[in-house]
């Protein structure tokens, strides 16, 4: 196993905008690192530079204690697991796993020993005679991983391995990959555009936008302390609400009313003029089902639509964004590929809430969780 250290990596195709722009990410030995971001953010290019399928324009790629910029892919001892698993349909599970060993000219006895050992770890030992066509998606994934384990690769590299699967299977596979990675303790870099995968699988997550690293942190840190507007909008589902805000003392003026925020947050936003407030849907509640509303603030709002999901309900409350921040929010929406609606507040209510469409409801908000962003730079000030 080995650590992977990307130092100020730049990738330019021709003389256009860099696909990867001065990115530094250190993946510790045994760590599960996620590269996430919307389409075109450069995550696959970065992965391909780790493996050696793409030249590095500037910067240093260090694997273990070696600079590998000029090493051929086969000399990097990494194992890439592709989206379609790249299994050979005409070969058995045994031969699929054995493939890299055969290529390396390993003796039959040794191949037999190594394949049996790997297939035991992966719980594939009962399926060694089957062909990939007769395996479940999960088993196929394990065969692909078996191929990597058998040759004792220093790291696993995954490029969107689950994107072709339906939601249920994707969930199962996610758990499986996580379990295996922990058990094997193999350094892993995993590319996805899916923030749920990023949050559930990664020890740490690198969020990229247009070739630039936005934030590198644990899933919890990204969720609790997003560094900027983009990360805040990208992480979390349904996404964070963004609203125009002005701060005076501890009072934040929002489209639905005024709330008090903690002094240390207010101080950081003092004198900054018009800001963008970010509030996650789950930091609201129906005041009538909330036991204690002494912390935070309440406000009255007319609910447009309610989606009841059993354990919770999403209520939609329209608001007017105001022209000053509309451009910034429109740009954010483009960056996030229009995943979120910015002209309505989405609030998550307890499943016991009886708030119905058209009601004027009393809504509670946890004001200690309100983020304030600089509209010009996107930086999180709180
Ligand atoms: P996706 O999720 O859509 O695969 P991505 O985040 O993995 O996107 P990359 O595939 O790394 O993004 O692409 C990053 C940028 O580099 C994009 O703007 C893309 O158009 C550009 N790009 C990628 N490969 C090439 C290439 N061979 N020649 C020119 N430009 C390229």
Quick one: CATH superfamily of the largest domain?
Answer: P-loop containing nucleotide triphosphate hydrolases
Q: Mind telling me the CATH class of the largest domain?
A: Alpha Beta
Number of helices: 10
User: In what order do the strands lie side by side in the largest sheet?
Assistant: 6-7-8-3-9-10
Tell me the overall shape.
elongated
Number of strands: 21
In whole angstroms, the N-to-C terminal distance is 39 Å
CATH architecture of the largest domain: 3-Layer(aba) Sandwich
Question: What topology emerges from the helices and strands here?
Answer:
Layout: E1 4-11, E2 20-27, E3 32-36, H1 43-51, E4 58-63, E5 66-67, E6 78-81, H2 93-103, H3 108-121, H4 137-150, E7 155-159, H5 167-184, E8 187-192, H6 195-201, E9 204-209, E10 212-217, H7 219-224, H8 229-234, E11 241-248, E12 251-254, E13 257-260, H9 263-269, E14 274-279, E15 284-286, E16 297-302, E17 305-308, E18 312-318, H10 323-335, E19 344-350, E20 360-365, E21 371-373
Parallel strand pairs: 3-8, 3-9, 6-7, 7-8
Antiparallel strand pairs: 1-2, 1-4, 4-5, 9-10, 11-12, 11-14, 12-13, 14-21, 15-20, 16-20, 17-18, 18-19
Bound molecules: adenosine-5'-triphosphate.
The site of adenosine-5'-triphosphate has 11 residues, from helix 1.
InterPro entries: AAA+_ATPase, ABC_transporter-like_ATP-bd, ABC_transporter-like_CS, ABC_transpr_MalK-like, ABC_transpr_MalK/UgpC-like, Mo/tungstate-bd_C_term_dom, NA-bd_OB-fold, OB_MalK-like
Keywords: ATP-binding, Cell membrane, Membrane, Nucleotide-binding, Translocase, Transport
GO cellular component, one term: ATP-binding cassette (ABC) transporter complex, substrate-binding subunit-containing
């Amino acid at each position: 196993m080995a650590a992977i250290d990307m130092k100020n990596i730049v990738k330019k195709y021709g003389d256009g905008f860099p696909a990867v722009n001065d990115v530094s990410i250190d993946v510790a030995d045994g760590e599960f690192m996620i590269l996430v971001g919307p389409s075109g953010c450069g995550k696959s290019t970065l992965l391909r530079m780790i493996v050696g399928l793409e030249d590095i324009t500037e910067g240093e790629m260090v694997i273990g204690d070696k600079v590998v910029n000029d090493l051929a892919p086969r000399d990097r001892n990494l194992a890439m697991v592709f989206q379609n698993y790249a299994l050979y349909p005409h070969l058995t599970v045994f031969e699929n796993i054995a493939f890299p060993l055969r290529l390396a000219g390993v003796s039959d006895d040794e191949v037999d020993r190594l394949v049996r050992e790997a297939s035991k770890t992966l719980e594939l030992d009962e399926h060694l005679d089957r062909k990939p066509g007769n395996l479940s998606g999960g088993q196929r994934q394990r065969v692909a991983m078996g191929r990597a384990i058998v040759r004792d690769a220093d790291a696993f590299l995954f490029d969107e391995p689950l994107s072709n699967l339906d939601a249920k299977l994707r969930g199962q596979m996610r758990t499986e990959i996580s379990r295996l990675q922990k058990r094997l303790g193999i350094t892993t870099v995993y590319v996805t555009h899916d923030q749920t995968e990023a949050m559930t699988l990664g020890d740490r997550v690198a969020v990229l936008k247009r070739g630039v690293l936005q934030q590198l942190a644990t899933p919890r840190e990204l969720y609790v302390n997003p560094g900027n507007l983009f990360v805040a909008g990208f992480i979390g589902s349904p996404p964070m609400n963004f609203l125009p805000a002005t701060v005076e003392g501890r009072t934040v003026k929002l489209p639905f009313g005024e709330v008090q925020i903690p002094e240390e947050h207010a101080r950081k936003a003092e004198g900054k003029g018009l800001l963008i407030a970010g509030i996650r849907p789950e930091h609201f509640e129906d005041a009538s089902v909330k036991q204690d509303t002494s912390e935070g603030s309440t406000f009255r709002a007319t609910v447009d639509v309610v989606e009841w999901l059993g354990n919770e309900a999403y209520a939609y409350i329209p608001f007017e964004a105001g022209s000053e921040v509309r451009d910034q929010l429109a740009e954010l929406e483009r960056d996030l590929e229009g995943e979120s609606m910015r002209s309505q507040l989405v609030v998550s209510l307890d499943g016991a809430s009886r708030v119905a469409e058209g009601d004027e409801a009393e809504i509670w908000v946890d004001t200690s969780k309100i983020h304030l962003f600089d509209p010009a730079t996107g930086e999180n000030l709180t």
